[in-house]
Amino acid sequence: AQSVTQLGSHVSVSEGALVLLRCNYSSSVPPYLFWYVQYPNQGLQLLLKYTSAATLVKGINGFEAEFKKSETSFHLTKPSAHMSDAAEYFCAVINTGNQFYFGTGTSLTVIP
Amino acid sequence: DTGVSQDPRHKITKRGQNVTFRCDPISEHNRLYWYRQTLGQGPEFLTYFQNEAQLEKSRLLSDRFSAERPKGSFSTLEIQRTEQGDSAMYLCASSSRGTSDWNEQFFGPGTRLTVL
Predict the structure, then answer these.
(1) Distance from CA of A16 to the nearest CA of B (A)
(2) What does the pLDDT look like over A48-84, one tens digit per residue?
(3) CB-CB under 8 Å, A43 with B48
(4) Percent of chain B with pLDDT over 70
(5) Which of A64, B19, B49, B58 could make an S-S bridge to B69, C-beta 3.0–4.6 Å?
């Protein structure tokens, strides 16, 4: 079964610093991978998705992620953190049965 | 239409009672999904519909859980004989099939269930 692992349930960065949120997937075939963000008391919002086109995917709010098949990774990055980036971030993979599998999430804190 | 809506946003019930949640998807979306999210965890897929057909329900948590989408528009998720372990956030999402099966799912704000 496909799954994703998010390393680090909590990440803290200083405002203006690099954001790196880690996601590794388990799949026997190239998967479709997603990053979602969840702000407090709001629904999940898609940041970006990888669907076997370019390996470097750019998303909203300055986020991007790189698909690395050799490392089975899809880490999320942003060059400069902003206070408004504080939220919960979820990596997800979809299988051929159109079922999403979400990671356990990483809570990002941005320190002023 | 501004997005997926769910009703109610919060539900408190006593153990053993039945509860029903409603989800209204984005109007042109033909796929609708239900998830459960517990504290500190990512959303857990439960079931999904394409139009009125329930294409996957093997991951519903028990036979106390059931979902319907009778007219291919809104959907309901019912939990019978609720237990304290059912306390969680129940999320609904919708997507359009479009030209790809891997279209973005748009999530609603969720219904938070508390079972006393």
Answers:
(1) 27
(2) 998 877 889 999 999 999 999 889 999 999 999 999 9
(3) no
(4) 95
(5) B49
